Write a sequence for this structure.
C-alpha cells in the first residue's frame, strides 16, 4: 500500500506538513510526498466548451496527477489560507477539469474509489472557520468518486507551533 | 460611487461575468472591471514569519489591490470551480496576506468597512454545493472588516447558459 | 399533482407562511397545509435499539406523516429560530425515526423520490446564517431519498415584513 | 468553577452522554447535569411582537435557564438527530427567545461571556454530516455573546458504542 501526500503549503517548515507527517507515521505502507510549491502548475484556462478542447499545457500538472493515480491513497495537506485551501492546492485541483477531458489520462476511472484524507491547519478559530474547507473537500471527493475517509484540523500559527500542539495524540492512529 | 468587479473567471464569454454585468446594470455609479486572467499574479510564498518579511514580488498584484482600495464597493465574481472560488481568485486573495504586512500599502485601514458582494455560478446543484464558498467569503469579509452585503448564486454550465437563466429577475435590483 | 406545505411556524400571521403561500401560488395542482402548531406531536423517545422497539405514541404524528406520503411534493416552511428549523419542525422530523421502524407505515418506500422544498425566513443576516439549515435539509433529503428541488430564504422580522419583501419576485415562478 | 451539562438525548444509556461524561472527567470543578428528557418543556409560541408580549408558561424551562446562568460554563450534549440537535434541545433553545424578553430574567447579561461547549454524536458520516450543527451552535453562541470554546464529534450508533470509541483519547484533556 502507498500513500501520496500532496502538500499545498507555501513554505518550508510547514505546520500542516508537520501534522501530515505525524499522521503518516501510523501508515502501514510507503509514503510519498509532493510539495506543490516545488512544482510549476499554471492556472486553468477553461476550454471545456471549445471546439478543439483544451490546449496542451507544459508544466508539472500531469506528473502530479499521475503520481496521484499510482498511489493507493491520497492525503491532501493544506494550510488554511483565507478560510480555504491554499492557492497552490486550488490551482492544482482546478486543472483536474482539464485532465478529465484528456482521453489519454483516464482520470475518472483511475481516481474513482481512491481513499482521500484531508489535513489542514490554521490559527483563527480553525475548528469552526475551517469547516467550509471540509465541506468543499466533501464535494470534491463525491464528484470524483473518491472516498472521504478522514480529516484532521490542526491549530498553529507560527512555524514550530504544530510540534507543541495538544492534538498530536489524535494523529497517532490516524491510519488504522 | 464606484464599484469594482474582480472576476476570477478563466475564459471569455463567462457566465459568472454575465451575471455580474446584469447585477451591475442596477448600480448607481461607475463600474470598473478587472479580469484576473488578464493579470499576472503569482502564488504567495508565506514569509510572514521570516525575519525580513516578504520579498517583493514583481507582478500585477499591487495594482489590483490598489484598484480595490480606490473603489467604494467590490464585487467578487467567480465561477464555482471544484466547489470553491477559482484558482485565479484564490491566488489573488492569498497574496493579501503579503499586502497586509507591507506598511506602504495600509491594507487593513483601506479595506475596512468596504461593502463586498459575491456572485458565483455553477452547474452541479450549485444552490447547495456553492454554500461552502459563501461561508468562506463570510469569513474573509469578517477578517478584513469588509461588510458582506449580498450574494447571488447563478446556475449555468455551458457558455451562453446565463443569458437564458430564469434567475435574471433576481439581479434586476441587485444594487438598490 | 398535490403539494403539501408543512409549516413549523409558531404563530399566526407568519412570515414564513406568507412566503410559502406566494410560492404556492405558482403551483399547478392542489395545495394543502398542515400547521404543526395546531397538532400535538411529542418528542421522540429513542427506542430504536430496544428489544421490543418503539412504544406506540398517541398523538398527531402518524396523521401528518400519512399526509406527507399522500402528497406528490412536500414543502417545509419554517422560520429560522436560533439558526435552525423551529422546535415544532424538529420535533416532528425526529419522530420519523420511529415511523421508519413501524412496518405498517412503509416510510422509506413511500417517501423515496418525493420532491422536497424548503422555505425559511429570518431577520439576522439570514442569507448567511440560514445556510446551516439548508445544509441540514440537504442531508435529511439525502437520507430519505427525497429530491431537494429548491429552497428560498426570506428576510423578515416583524409580522407583516414578508409582504413588503423585495424578494417576492423570486417566488413568482417558484414552481415551474 | 462549575460546569453544567445540558443533555438533549432522548434515552438512558446515551452515547452522547457517555462522551460528555468522559470530557467532564477532566473538568477541574463541580459538574452538574440536566437531562432535558426528564423535564417538561413546551414549544415556544412566538409572541415577541404581541402587544402584551409572552404569556407565562408553566413548565421547567425557567429552572433550566436559571441553572445555566448559575453555572460558570455550559456544555450542550446532544445526539445528532436528523443532522441537527435533538428536538428536546431545539425546543429548549427556542424558548430562550421568550426568556430574553422577560425582564425579570435578565437573560442577555447573565449569559454573555459564558464559555460554551458542544458534544454531539452520530453514526452516519458524523464528521461531515455533523458540521451544520456546529455551524449553527456557532451562530447561537455569537448571538448570545457566549464564547464557543470547543466541540467534540463522536461516532456511535448503538447503545454502548461510545465506550468502544477510538476517539476517547481526544476527551482526556477536553477541559484543560
Amino acid at each position: 500500500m502507498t500513500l501520496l501526500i500532496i502538500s499545498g503549503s507555501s513554505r518550508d517548515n510547514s505546520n500542516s506538513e508537520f501534522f501530515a507527517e505525524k499522521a503518516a507515521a501510523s501508515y502501514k505502507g510507503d509514503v510519498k510526498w509532493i510539495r506543490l510549491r516545488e512544482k510549476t502548475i499554471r492556472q486553468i484556462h477553461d476550454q471545456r466548451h471549445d471546439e478543439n478542447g483544451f490546449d496542451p499545457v507544459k508544466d508539472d500538472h500531469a506528473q502530479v496527477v499521475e503520481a496521484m493515480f499510482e498511489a493507493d491513497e491520497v492525503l491532501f495537506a493544506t494550510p488554511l489560507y483565507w478560510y480555504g485551501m491554499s492557492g497552490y492546492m486550488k490551482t492544482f485541483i482546478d486543472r483536474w477539469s482539464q485532465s478529465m477531458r484528456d482521453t489519454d489520462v483516464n482520470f475518472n476511472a483511475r481516481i474513482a474509489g481512491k481513499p482521500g484524507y484531508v489535513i489542514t491547519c490554521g490559527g483563527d478559530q480553525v475548528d469552526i472557520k475551517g469547516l467550509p474547507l471540509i465541506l468543499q473537500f466533501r464535494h470534491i471527493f463525491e464528484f470524483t468518486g473518491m472516498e472521504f475517509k478522514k480529516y484532521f484540523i490542526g491549530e498553529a500559527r507560527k512555524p514550530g507551533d504544530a510540534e507543541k500542539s495538544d492534538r498530536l495524540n489524535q494523529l497517532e492512529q490516524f491510519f488504522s
Remarks:
- The CA atoms of residues 15 and 158 of chain B lie 8 Å apart.
- Chain B touches chain C through 16 residues (CB under 8 Å).
